[in-house]
Design brief:
Layout lengths: L2 E2 L5 H10 L5 H12 L13 H10 E2 L4 E7 L5 E6 L5 E8 L4 E4 L3 E3 L8 H5 L1 E4 L2 H14 L8 E4 L9 H12 L11 E5 L3 H10 L3 E5 L5 H7 L8 H12 L7 E7 L7 H10 L5 E7 L13 H13 L3 E4 L22 H11 L1
The structure holds S-adenosyl-L-homocysteine and iron/sulfur cluster (SF4).
Length: about 350
């Protein structure tokens, strides 16, 4: 198989050019052509030496996910179904807002972590996405899809648990932030995780993107039920790791995602436990109305309950917002992304857990 150049970040492209007998800076030129200018035809990369272009044509390719289907929502949100190698399908969602355009990017086909309220988790797990499949979602949105609005922000909140696909996700986020590629600042890229503690520690060494943590419960017993990875990495481990992630930057905050489940985690007692748990941590709590999917027994807390919960957090001095649900009419909202996952059984699940 030829090397897919979309799998390589700046250092990967530099090494490739050196291997082919050229200077490393040609790798940076390549990065610019592919990601900044959106060029995939080697002949159009006019400042590369002709012999390098010939070598690239011989040994490499630039292969993007295929767009299978595009569905706009009444509120402007656009969900896209992409086909990747092996006939798997993943979803990516563009959310236009007044002053920004956010792309919600997937990191895996399905997810092995089986959170009880998430339809991706309920679908099972097939495989990790490669760098090209992750960055390809952004490439398509920026260069091909003519978004009415520029992509200004990326959130790793699509299908999958990004920290369970660590190397590819970090490499793709490097390309997102690279000056010669998409130039997104560290404030514009957010990784959302359910809390794989050792990988969270490693993430701090590898990058400085914004962190969102799917908390959903402030006590272990309930969190074990909603977010089963909590049994392996309980709150006593997760919370210090999160504190550590932002400790060098006084202006940074952790975003805590908290899905509002009627009668499950939305009582005044739950609010008090949450306030206690997050005391002293620079925080922003994002309350997410539960988005239903077929077969689920959960219901969203009513709007008044969510507002009361939010006010309680605010009265204790916390920043708390309610996420506006977007793309609900097309199943593009949080936790509704399903793509097409051929679950490869519990063996995959056990492997993913072991590797984390
Ligand atoms: N695996 C990562 C990122 C993908 S999920 C994580 O769990 O953080 C992105 C967000 O959507 C998470 O906060 C997740 O808890 C939330 N979510 C999942 N299912 C949902 C649903 N049915 N309704 C609302 N939010 C949901
Ligand atoms: Fe996976 Fe996140 Fe869904 Fe949990 S909420 S199953 S970690 S995608």
């Amino acid at each position: 198989m030829p090397v897919n150049l979309l799998d390589l970040d700046r250092s990967g492209l530099e090494s490739l050019c050196v291997e082919l007998g050229f200077k490393a800076y040609q790798g940076r030129n390549l990065l610019k052509w592919i990601h900044k200018h959106g060029v995939v035809d080697f002949d159009a990369m006019t400042d590369l030496p002709k012999r390098l272009r010939e070598e690239l044509l011989l040994h490499t390719e630039i292969r993007l996910p295929k767009i299978v289907f595009e569905q706009p929502s009444l509120d402007g949100t656009i969900k896209r179904l992409l086909e990747i190698d092996g006939g798997q399908r993943i979803e990516t969602v563009f959310i236009p807002e007044e002053n920004r355009g956010t792309l919600c990017v997937s990191s895996q086909v399905g997810c092995a972590l089986e959170c009880s309220f998430c339809s991706t988790g309920q679908q099972g797990f097939n495989r990790n996405l490669s760098v090209s499949e992750i960055i390809g979602q952004l490439w398509l949105a920026v260069h091909l899809l003519n978004e009415q609005q520029a992509v200004t922000n990326v959130v790793m909140m699509g299908m999958g648990e990004p920290l369970a696909n660590f190397d590819a996700v970090v490499s793709a986020m490097d390309i997102m932030q690279d000056d010669l590629a998409y130039q997104l600042s560290k404030h514009k890229v957010t990784l959302s995780t359910s809390g794989i503690v050792p990988a969270l520690k490693a993430l701090r060494q590898a990058t400085d993107v914004c962190l969102a943590v799917s908390l959903h419960a402030a006590e272990n017993q309930l969190r074990d039920e909603l977010v089963p990875i909590n049994k392996k990495y309980p709150l006593e481990q997760l919370i210090p790791a999160c504190r550590e992630y932002i400790k060098d930057d006084k202006r940074r905050k952790i975003t805590w995602e908290y899905v509002m489940l009627d009668g499950v985690n939305d009582s005044n007692r739950d609010a008090r436990a949450l306030i206690r748990l997050l005391e002293g941590i620079p925080s922003k709590v994002n309350l997410i109305p539960f988005n239903p999917f077929p077969g689920t027994a959960y219901r969203s807390s009513p709007a008044e309950r969510i507002e009361e919960f939010r006010q309680r957090l605010r009265r204790s001095g916390m920043i708390a917002t309610t996420r506006k649900t977007r793309g609900n009419d097309i199943d593009a909202a949080c936790g509704q992304l399903v793509g097409k996952v051929n679950d490869r059984s519990n063996r995959q699940l056990r492997m993913a857990m072991r590797n984390t």
